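Entry 12.
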Amino acid sequence: MRKSECVNLLARHLGVRATRLTSLTQRLAEAGQLPVSSGPPYPDLEPIEIVRMLLVGICDEGIGAAPKTVERYCGLRCGAIDLETALAHALSRPESVLAAHASLRISTGDHPQAILITASPDGLREQVFGEPSFGSVERVVTVSGSALAAIADEISQPDAVAA
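Predicted 3D structure (tokens):
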């Protein structure tokens, strides 16, 4: 999936303006966090790059801050795994993102935290990334299971997006 296709996919399912996400994505590319191409053939995005676009779109802290936003949220840890890796793994496996149960909840602020709920063979799995913040002002963003499932389904079938 190319960046422009991913922008449209994420804008559609996350309720983010495509023009805003395009600007944020361009800033990530300039910072070396997404691939850059001067013409065909355009590279397909890796799952981790799709996660970067998703996180910068929902945690938007400004265009100039886009690279730092990605570093901040992708680097949140739950034990030995970071949010970037866990979310990329989940989105690469549509069966782990059940519309009725999965979700991603991110608390922004001085001490960001993310909670990712996915399905596993043993049942639902809740992973908490980062430490809870007490007493600080924060914004909470939730991506529903149905939005995550739709994104995962379309990522796994890139021809459906292009059609």
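Annotation: The mean pLDDT is 90. Residues 3-162 form one domain.
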